[in-house]
Specification:
This protein is α/β, with parallel strands linked by helices. It contains twelve helices and 13 strands. It has a seven-stranded parallel β-sheet, with helices on both faces. The protein has a two-stranded antiparallel ribbon with strand order 1-2. Strands 3-4 form a two-stranded antiparallel ribbon. Strand 5 (about 80), helix 3 (about 85-100) and strand 6 (about 100-105) form a beta-alpha-beta unit. The termini are far apart. Residues about 1-25 and about 35-70 have low confidence and may be disordered. Bound molecules: nicotinamide-adenine-dinucleotide.
Length: about 350
Amino acid sequence: MTALSSHGLQRATYDGLADPEPQSSGDTRRRSLHGPLSSVHGSIGKVDELDSSNPLRITIPAQHRGYVMHQAIRTGHVAVITGGASGIGRSAATRFAAAGMRIVLADVDEGGLAAVAEELRATGADVVTLRTDVSNVTQVAAMADAACEFGPVSILMNNAGREGGGGILAGETVWDATLATNLLGPVYGVQQFLPTMLAADWPCAIINTGSKQGITLPPGDTAYNVSKAGLNAFTASLAHDLLPTDGRVTAHLLIPGFTFTGFTTRRGIEAKPDGAWTADQVADFMLERMDAGDFYILCPDNETNRDLDIRRMQWTAADIAENRPALSRWNPAYADAFAAYMRGEG
Ligand SMILES: NC(=O)c1ccc[n+]([C@@H]2O[C@H](COP(=O)([O-])OP(=O)(O)OC[C@H]3O[C@@H](n4cnc5c(N)ncnc54)[C@H](O)[C@@H]3O)[C@@H](O)[C@H]2O)c1
């Protein structure tokens, strides 16, 4: 299926997501924010209700469902993707481009950026590549300037990430780089783009790529876990602060499962493990769940389904309620109890 974009290029559209025509894109100037979001948008009203059939799931009010994400993914508008040179970012960029969006790809990997840009341009997409280290606020600000020059930004995907590989005593180099990339990178991204999104009159979405490790905190990769736990907290707070926009600007926490990407190949694994999803599967799932209005986009993979994830997360959350030791899931004294719980006996 093809559609004519705002700038006259023939390109593929992503079925069911692309707008037939470019939407309002009046004032695209960069803004800076002064004061809290509530001062911009007034008081926060009551929005959500608990879905009684599943206490973990918040139901988005009917008037917001289906509207928000369809509208943010739109022909002629700009999608900014950090970590866009590889893996999940590359797959997401491919899909946003197929929806007729202009693409800003940011990454530290210039060779990867050039390769992905070439792929996208071959499909007729308008693409800008920016060598950007997301841990550097000056570079993130320059990325925001360039993106807003390119067109009306309606998608920001803070996706760049690095594996920490570091425990408690890993040293400041590992900790600084991991927190700066995985946590401060998205913070800088939001701070640089959000004022412009708030001042705009078109729907916008911010997607931060988190991790299940930021929720369940498996021992050993502590720097990474801490960075993703912080990102979880930041993104949840962002989503709440955006409630006064009545769904015009939304935030989403993408939580991939085991995914075959640069993360995997850097460990020397060249072929996709059976248990892993592809990055394309993650990107497709993300779009489907954004369309459904989800904040927590909890991806399964070929070895972990949603029910398994939810049980693991409920066990972790219950450590507090049950006054168990920290990370009891991995505490030998709780091995039998955890195994029984996972068998449905707990
Ligand atoms: N692959 C998985 O199993 C998995 C699971 C959960 C979460 N994630 C998250 O998914 C996101 C994307 O990773 P991926 O799996 O596609 O891996 P990937 O290695 O294929 O892609 C990550 C990209 O981020 C870029 N990057 C790293 N540091 C950067 C920096 N400081 N500034 C700009 N770009 C930088 C890399 O160059 C790379 O292109 C990451 O945030 C990662 O933590 C991945």
